[in-house]
Specification:
Blueprint lengths: L2 H11 L5 E4 L4 H10 L6 H12 L2 H7 E6 L1 H4 L9 H8 L2 E5 L4 E3 L7 E3 L5 H11 L3 E8 L8 H20 L3 E8 L7 H21 L8 E2 L16 H15 L6 E4 L6 H12 L7 E6 L1 H11 L6 H18 L6 H7 L1
Parallel strand pairs: 1-2, 1-10, 2-3, 3-6, 6-7, 7-8, 8-9, 9-10
Antiparallel strand pairs: 4-5
Helix pairs in contact: 4-13, 8-9, 9-10, 10-11, 11-12, 11-13, 12-13
This protein binds 2-O-methyl-1,6-di-O-phosphono-D-mannitol.
2-O-methyl-1,6-di-O-phosphono-D-mannitol (5MM) binds next to helix 12.
Amino acid sequence: MNLTELNRIATAMVAPGKGILAADESSGTIKKRFDAIGVESTESNRRDYREMLFRSREAMSQYISGVILYDETIWQDAKDGTPLVKLIEQSGAIPGIKVDEGTQALPMCPGELVTVGLDKLAERLRKYYERGARFAKWRAVIDIGSGIPSMTAIGVNAHALARYAALCQAAQIVPIVEPEVLMDGDHDIDRCYEVTTRVLNKTFQELRVQRVALEGMVLKPNMAISGKKCAKQAPVEEVAEKTIRLLKACVPAAVPGIAFLSGGQSDEEATAHLNAMHKLGPLPWGLTFSYGRALQAAPQKAWSGKAENVAAGQNAFSHRARMNGLASKGEWQSSLEKKAA
Ligand code: 5MM
């Protein structure tokens, strides 16, 4: 393992002003997104949509440091025959790959999930590296509800995240470690804070036990935030303050960067929260976005599967990428959104 090189890539993934595009929706999830805009989820439509994003010159060259791909996409070519991976590289961004294989019910733990995909992972990583992937992603899902999460679910998911991360580093691939505490319930921000603390502490304990080099990874956490159905929604400043307090308590400074998931926040909320956190600096790690929905909802709507809307889709994507790029430096203002509208 060349740790200097892993650290160089991890640092580039969280460079100030840039963040990561999570375009790794599995077939089921992208179908849901396409259903919402009335587009059939065929292999060629998925290719056309992602090609549109990767050819968005402004977004890709200025605000996107890396793209997380799904297995189908990493092997696909653009309409003109150029591998999609090459389009990403040519824009100056780094290709990455989602390597988990989704979740399964966790036996003896009703309502809880464990992420799978460790079998033959070393071999898959070798092929992805040859194709150009320089980082990977594995997402664990932790739900908050009555009596959950259990320490069993937190423990097995942390163990799998660390197994995955160690295999990535051995294959010279930077692991994005994503333990996502869902924001789907009616819990308040303090319950999210408490559960996320337990999850991150257990995750870093496992990473250390399995000898993962913290200097060669990126953490992709949720923010400390109110559940979507909670009657009392914490304001932006509280989300920022509690998230930074929590991360400072749980994430060692050796980690080069933290890149948030958006988790179902609106586009502008996700941007405002990241921006507010940068007002609380200096911070010990790079802090940026690795958004899926909060970067793609607008371009998906603008595109709606029509070739004549490609420019509109690219404009919508570039706008969100620019707003989040500014937020990753604490330079975003809500008036910039209105001006664009
Ligand atoms: C883009 O969505 C990713 C893949 O999800 P599925 O495996 O369920 O299709 C997801 O892991 C994503 O990378 C993160 O959750 C961040 O995306 P959001 O939309 O939460 O910012």
